Amino acid sequence: MWRSISWPKLCVAQVTSINMEGTMSRIFVLLCILLSAQFTFAAEGETLKSDSKETWGWRTAMMTSLMLTLASNPLDADEFSVTPMSSTDVGGLKFGFRWYPNEVIGNLAGAEITHYYLFAYNYWQSTVVDGQEGVVNGLEFIPVFRLNWSYNNLLSFVETSVGASVLSRNQINDRQLSTNFQFSNSLAFGGYFTPKSTWTLQLQHYSNNSIKLPNNGINFYNLNFAFRY
Q1: Who has the most CB within 10 Å: 41, 131, 176, 220?
Q2: Per-residue confidence at 70, pLDDT binned at 50, 70, 90?
Q3: CATH code of the domain covering residue 198
């Protein structure tokens, strides 16, 4: 006996299927990026030596939670980003949410000037100091300005930004940052893989603008991958 299925129920089922496919693809991409950047996580330390299963257990739980948090969009963001970071004797990962106001704030030689707001978590790991002694955690909020000459090419825009960040430590390796509060400045260029996914190659600088000395600062070379919800 055939059962009739109403169009509203069928449409809901199709939308749910599409949403699940999108979520699973985001999780897969995040997992690939995390696995390719595994060097950024502490490789030594007393906890790892004494109980490696426990250490890798909580690391796996942390990475899974981060992936699910980004994929589920709890902050109602327009976009999420995952960023491998590299500096001298330091590696890192950045996980961020982005919000895009629906406005063009200016034009320059035919290109549109837009902006978005980034809220991100940073995990830095020294490559010369083993374990948790070489870890710095950070949160940052950054308004980013983008000059777009295209919205569909592999090279489509340049970016600049100045924002604020708070770090868990004011020293990493032999770099004295002196304050936990840091300004974050960046320059970048990038483009579109698809209408809903972008890449950006970025130079990012952290320093306290000489609020307190010594002010060594630190530079990172970042490769951002961003995905629209």
Answers
A1: 220
A2: confident
A3: 2.40.160.20
What's the whole-number mean pLDDT along residues 52-56? 64
Domain of 160, in residue numbers: 7-228
Could you tell me what percent of the chain has a pLDDT over 90? 66
Residue 67 in domain: yes
- 11: its two tokens: 């449409």
Residue 182, H or E segment: strand 181-194
Residue 185's H or E segment, with its range, is: strand 181-194
Measured CA to CA, the distance from residue 2 to residue 19 in angstroms comes to: 28
Each residue's pLDDT tens digit, 23-39? 555 555 555 555 444 44
Is residue 1 included in any domain, yes or no? no
* Domain count of the fold of the chain: 1
Is the pLDDT at 90 greater than 90? The verdict is: yes
Cis peptide before 214 (omega within 30 of 0): yes
Residue 111 burial (C-beta neighbours within 10 Å; 0-12, 13-18, 19+)? middle
Q: Is residue 54 part of a domain?
A: yes
Rg, C-alpha atoms of the chain:
20
In angstroms, how far apart are the furthest CA atoms of the chain? 81
Which amino acid does the sequence have at 103? Answer: E
Residue whose C-alpha is closest to residue 91's, from 52, 37, 140, 46: 37
